[in-house]
Design brief:
By secondary structure, the chain is α/β, with parallel strands linked by helices. It has 2 domains: 8-15 and 62-207 and 297-330, Rossmann fold, CATH 3.40.50; 20-47 and 219-294, no CATH class. Helices cover 31% and strands 25% of the residues. Strands 1, 2, 3, 4, 5, 6, 7, 8, 14 and 15 form a 10-stranded mixed sheet that branches. Strands 9-10-13 form a 3-stranded antiparallel sheet. A two-stranded antiparallel ribbon has the order 11-12. β4 (117-122), α5 (125-138) and β5 (143-144) form a beta-alpha-beta unit. α2 packs antiparallel against α8 (221-237) and α3 runs parallel beside α4 (99-106).
């Protein structure tokens, strides 16, 4: 179990509040999945080292417009988004690589970087430290204070002693179902001060063929990424999932306005979790859901914001309105520049 303490590594003070998930906890989730109405494995198990590398490849695929379009928006509006921000904390939830934060930092006057504290929040200590060390090398005047935590549960761990600009990019909120997303936004609203802002990246509803192509690339990298979750379970639970027994399936669920990724059994399969002495049965063509990727409309985002005491103060979209960045503030905060599209 990780200790909840501040530790200095490579000249950085890292605060680690994350309790490692035990094999027993992973097993409880895996065993719960087959008893649910719809079998599932939580998508967080995608991201071992191999899974993270595969996802970086996905972000560069021609079909996967999400990252490319969000980066376009950040480059186009970085100056506007960062205007007037100083003497505060730049908090990035699920920080990952430094592609996006560097665009925002480059848009700031260099003399103001010394007034900023960058607070990346992620469950992976190795990933967060690698990214943090890179940033301190590039911007020696910038203070970086990594927090290893699960942002869906540990928002109260974010420092509250300075004004905050909180970043939640990549449409990661789409991996939460409606109730989870509403709970997350409500928890966030309780921690936003009167001058704080929240920038939320959102993948918008668009033609089904565009959505489904983004998760069914021609190089089959997404399929490989999807199956990687089985390798993680093999490692963590001494399971014997054979990748050849499952195929990647991704489709848009129109009723729930989300893309779903599943693994479908190509034949009747029995999987043994050797570390637990348990087995899971899969019928032929039975699927297990590995990820949901909800898609949004401006109305749906504004509704959730209003329900939690917040409001959308500005809206930034690309010309096709495929992806958007919403700036969200407390409802009582005074109006600013009207919403903006490219």
């Amino acid at each position: 179990m990780k200790t909840q303490a501040a530790v200095r590594k490579s000249g950085l003070e890292i605060r680690n509040y994350y309790t490692e998930v035990s094999n027993a906890q992973i097993a409880a989730v895996v065993l719960k999945g087959p008893t649910a109405t719809e079998k599932y494995i939580p998508s967080k198990y995608f991201y071992d080292a191999r899974g993270s590398r595969l996802f970086e490849l996905i972000c560069r695929l021609p079909e996967y417009y999400l990252t490319r379009t969000e980066l376009f928006l950040l480059r186009r509006f970085a100056g506007t988004l960062m205007e007037g921000f100083e003497n505060g904390d730049l908090v990035e939830l699920g920080s990952g690589a430094n592609w996006k934060i560097r665009i925002l930092l480059e848009a700031m006057n260099s003399s103001l970087l010394a007034t900023i504290r960058y607070v990346p929040v992620d469950v992976s200590e190795s990933a967060i430290m690698s990214a943090a060390n890179e940033l301190t090398s590039l911007y020696p005047e910038l203070t970086v204070a990594p927090v290893v935590a699960d942002f869906t549960k540990d928002l109260h761990r974010i420092p509250a002693d300075r004004p905050k600009l909180i970043l939640f990019f990549g449409s990661t909120i789409g991996n939460l179902d409606e109730d989870e997303a509403r709970s997350f936004v409500h928890s966030l609203s309780e921690r936003l001060g009167p001058e704080d802002r929240f920038l939320l990246g959102l993948d918008m509803i668009k033609p089904v063929e565009i959505l489904e192509a983004a998760y069914n690339d021609r190089q089959n990298i997404t399929a490989e990424f999807n199956k990687n979750i089985l390798l993680v379970l093999n490692e963590e639970l001494s399971a014997n999932f054979e990748l050849a027994n499952f195929e990647h399936v991704a489709f848009f669920n129109n009723e729930k306005e989300r893309v779903e990724m599943h693994l479908r059994a190509k034949r009747r399969v029995t999987v043994t979790l050797r570390s637990l002495g348990r087995s899971i049965e899969f019928k032929r063509d039975e699927t297990i859901r590995t990820e949901i990727c909800r898609k949004f409309t401006r109305e749906s985002v504004e509704t959730v914001a209003e329900e939690t005491g917040l409001r959308v103060s500005r809206w930034f979209s690309d010309p096709r309105e495929w992806f958007s960045i919403a700036e969200i503030v407390r409802a009582c905060q005074p109006e600013k520049t009207p919403s903006t599209s490219y």
